[in-house]
Each structure stands twice: as C-alpha cells, then as structure tokens.
Amino acid sequence: MSIKISKRALYREAFDYFMIAVGCVLYAIGWTIFLLPNNIGNGGVAGLSSIIYWGMGVPISVTYFVMNAILLALALKTLGLRFCIKTIYGVMMMTLATGVLRGLYPHPTILNDDPVMGAMMGAIFCGLGLGFCLSHNGSSGGSDIVAAVVNKYRDISLGRVIVLVDMFIVSLSYVVLHDWNQVIYGYLTLVISAVVLDQIVNSGIRSVQFLIISERYEEICQKITELPPHRGCTIIDAHGYYTGNTTKVVLVVTRKREAGLLYSVINDIDPHAFVTQSQVMGVFGQGFEKFKVKHKNHKEVGAEA
C-alpha cells in the first residue's frame, strides 16, 4: 500500500529541517565565538563539553556528540521517533557546525575585553538557536531534550525548565575555572537565553480574546467561521447601561498572529463596530493547546476511594 504525501506536508518537513539547521548554526556561533573563548559556561551538554574542554582539552564536538547519543537513547520512548529523528539531525548539525567553526576560528577574540557583552551576545545567539530548533519540532540536543520531556506532561515554561537544569552545570564550571566571576557570567547567559527561547517558542502560540459589539454580528460571525483558520464565535446577550438597549457581544479567541485577519473581517463588514482585544494567559481545547496533566491510573483511584 503506497503512502501519499502532500506537497504542503513535504514543504513543511523540509522547512523544519532547514530551520533546525539554522538554529544549530546560531547556537554554535554563540557557543564557540562568544562563550567558549571567554571562559563563560553555558548549560546542558554544551556546558559539560566546555568544562571537559577547559579541564582536559577534549574537543567539544566529540564530548557533545557522545553525551547526546546517550540522552537520545533514553528519550526515544518518551518523545517518540519523529522528535528523536529531528533531534539526531540537530545533534549532527550542531556537531558539524561546532567542528567547522572551531576549525575556522580556533581563537576568536570578539569581546574578549568585555565579558558582560560577550555573555549577552552568546546568550542571544544560543537562545535563538534553541528557539528555532524547538519551535520546528526538533532539538539541538542537551538539556532541551529534558525540557521537551517535561513540557510534554506539564504546562511549564521551556525556558524555566532549562534554567533549573542548567544552573547546576554552570556552577560546575568553577571546578576548572576557579573564578566565581565567570560562573556569574554563566548565570547571566542562562537567564538571557531562556528569555529569548521563550519569546521564539511562544510567539507562535500566544492567543488573544476579542469582544465585538456590532449590529451586524451575524455577518461577522459567519465570516469568521468560514475563513481559515475557522475560529468559533460565542454570542453573549448584553444590556447597554447608557442607552438601555439590549445588544449582542461576540466572543472570539484566536492566535495572536491571526488578529490582523479578524480586524480586516470586522472592518469590511462594520467599520463602526466596537472591538476590544486582550491577551489571554492560556487557551486549551479544540484548535488550541492540549491539557498537560498527569492522569491517575485506576489502581490509584481505587486506593484513594
């Protein structure tokens, strides 16, 4: 039996792999150009590879690849084959990128006299790299594998998970650097990269809520439900205090990136409509995010009963 793959799905997969490669290159730039030469630790497997390099001189690409291979073997069952295939690809791209950059620029001197700016620039590049990888269903390996496992079952910020996992690794850099200033720069790197990571990953899933008051509410609702992404509308009965008239309020929840489309629909139908838009913290259900809760098995429920 042959399996047909649509052009859209093929394009989406190809684009994912391209963006994962871009993310790995960005992370490798932040790591090998800004952090490693300035003796600034970072988190995850990259941070451990840096510590081993500073202490023993082992190339970072070697330790990075070996440790990620172990992590992937452990994460295969939890994350699934699709994630792990893209992560294997990400690890290979990261290994290649770090190897090439270390060969081309073995002793970069960018911002060597300004460790704070070096830490900030390295963190920005690393955060961008991780964000691109994770937002396209992949990973560059390291602690973002752990973050992806936790995020699959709990509604916890990816950046927060990575910070908690990586703080201990950054602290370990003191063993070989013997300088708490460098450790503090490492903490700064973790915080900035986590903020950038969350901005990249969550930018595509932020949601907004619209309240629309218009006499032509039925036309607006029909158009919103007809046009992709086919969002639903809820009509609420309301009463105007000043006018004393009854009216209808349309409630719509959609992605933030789709807000412009809704404004265009409303403006085309009723330019005089009263519209408010507000940010919502979380939206769960059909068309949005899934609940991330741990379900108790029947034995546990029976025992509690």
Report on this structure:
This protein has 305 residues and is an alpha+beta fold. 62% of the residues lie in helices and 10% in strands. It is built from 11 helices and 4 strands. The protein has a 4-stranded antiparallel sheet with strand order 2-3-1-4, with no helix packed on it.
- Helix-strand pattern, N to C? HHHHHHHHEHEEHEH
Uncertain runs are 298-305
Task: Give the quaternary arrangement of the chains.
Answer: single chain
| Number of alpha- plus pi-helical segments | 11
Cα-to-Cα separation, first versus last residue:
49 Å
Helix content: 55-70%
Name the overall outline: elongated
CA-based gyration radius: 24 Å
Largest sheet: 4 strands, antiparallel
Structural class by secondary-structure content: alpha+beta
Topology, number of strands = 4
Strand content: 5-15%
Mean pLDDT: 81
Q: Largest sheet, order of strands side by side?
A: 2-3-1-4
Q: What's this entry about, in short?
A:
With 305 residues, this protein is an alpha+beta fold. The protein has helices spanning 7-35, 44-56, 60-104, 115-135, 143-153, 158-172, 174-177, 180-202, 217-226, 259-269, 298-304, and strands spanning 207-213, 234-239, 246-255, 274-280. Strands 2-3-1-4 form a four-stranded antiparallel sheet, with no helix packed on it.
